[in-house]
Amino acid sequence: MTAYTKSTNFATKDTLTSGDPLKIVKGTEINTEFDNIATSVNSKSDTASPTFTGTVTIPTLAVTGASTMTGAIAVDSTTDSTSTITGSIQTDGGVGIAKALYVGTNANVAGTLAVTGAATLSSTLTYGGVTLTNAVTGTGKMVLDTSPTLVTPILGTPTSGTVTNLTGTASININGTVGATTANTGAFTTLSATGVTTVQAGTAALPAITTTGDTNTGVFFPAADTVGVSTSGSERMRIASGGEVLVGTTSTTVGGQTPKLGVVGSNNVTFAVDCTASAGASGIHIRRSVSGTGEVMTFDSLTTRVGNISITGSATAYNTSSDYRLKNSTSPMAGALAKVALLKPCTYKWNADGSDGQGFIAHELAEVVPGCVTGAKDAVDVDGNPQYQGIDTSFLVATLTAAIQELKALTDTQTSTITALTARITALENK
Is residue 286 part of a domain? Predict the structure, then answer.
């Protein structure tokens, strides 16, 4: 009910002297007063279900039931709320707000804060000793019980802290660093995941999975279905999408072939095997899993096949290329018997274990049949270590065969001569 204000003071008129024109009560004055009274009465609402259609000023309003207001409510009290029974507006029930809510200072939630839509943090959020702002600070814990997705957080440098209870399909997308103030440093103390852990692809120079203090060494993902390993910022090995293991190369074609294991190197030794197993074990085992004759190892010089090792069901052959199409200027070998006469076969003992041996001394054999020997006499490497000569006596076969043929020709001639002389002697004896 609006306040009733008198327009005419009738008590003042009563004090005026008779005959004073102002003492007379006019009809218009009476109409004005009745209009004022009507306005005040019309603004009064039923106390059980009041309805206000204009602007209402109420010193204190206590509502025990539901209240529907179609306009704005302005509360002039500046009292802060520190509990459910303090502050300018107090209610024993819940508050439903269909539109945006703006809180000018602090919002204190004693129970659970559930946000079903988007939540934008423009300043700071503190929970359990951890403050979320443009840098994470504090030493407490933030526990996420459902299946959160933290998108592009910026982590600061807390002295300690734990993110726990990430279950289900939870994921953490970190665009920056963990536990460090400079880029590409920092690490999780312990990371345990039962589902899929996703990292960036990385590069050979900055691999996706690395270790503290050595960030240019680790594992990266150079292409789809491909895993790479780098050291010192350079790729050293990769597993290609077809399962090929490549060392020293990124191409699945190695030596003109597409092997499951491809090794490319410029060292003096590209591939080495050091067998430390007991006697009887194999340093390298090669098995052909199909029946019939077939190659188990091949040797190429550039693009030309120069040899192979082949096996049957019962034997192994070490083959050197000898096709006529690979040769020219062919002629019979001569002087082989003389060469054989120059050979110096000998017996000896090996320095390594004192065992007996027989054969040739490499540099002596090289003087007669150079093709049987590799290396040079008394050669050493750049560090002064001996570079020993080697012998492939299979190259003596042609020389020995030619020597046998020459020897046979001599014996055939001698046999003919002996036969003729024997016939003459027999003829002379019969005279």
Answer: no
Tell me the pTM: 0.51
pLDDT, tens only, 407-428: 999 999 999 999 999 999 999 9
Q: Is the pLDDT of residue 406 over 80?
A: yes
In a domain, 141, yes or no: yes
Beta bridge partners of 391: 373
Chain centroid to CA 30 = 94
Tokens matching residue 282: 């194999």
Instruction: Give CA 325 to chain center in angstroms.
Output: 52
Q: From CA 403, how far away is CA 343, in angstroms rounded?
A: 12
pLDDT tens for 26-58 read 888 888 888 877 777 766 655 566 666 666 666
My answer on whether 424 and 358 are in the same domain is: yes
Q: Are residues 94 and 123 in the same domain?
A: no
Domain count, the chain: 5
Domain boundary (147, 171, 198) is at 198
Residue whose structure tokens are 């009465």: 41
CB 206 within 8 A of CB 215: yes
Which of 177, 175, 171 is CA-nearest to residue 158?
A: 177
Whole-number pLDDT of residue 16: 82
The closest alpha carbon to 237, from 211, 200, 263, belongs to 263
Q: Which residue range is the domain that position 37 belongs to?
A: 1-108
- Please answer whether residues 329 and 395 qualify as being in contact, where contact means their C-beta atoms are separated by less than 8 angstroms: no
The answer to whether 172 and 166 have CB atoms below 8 angstroms apart is yes
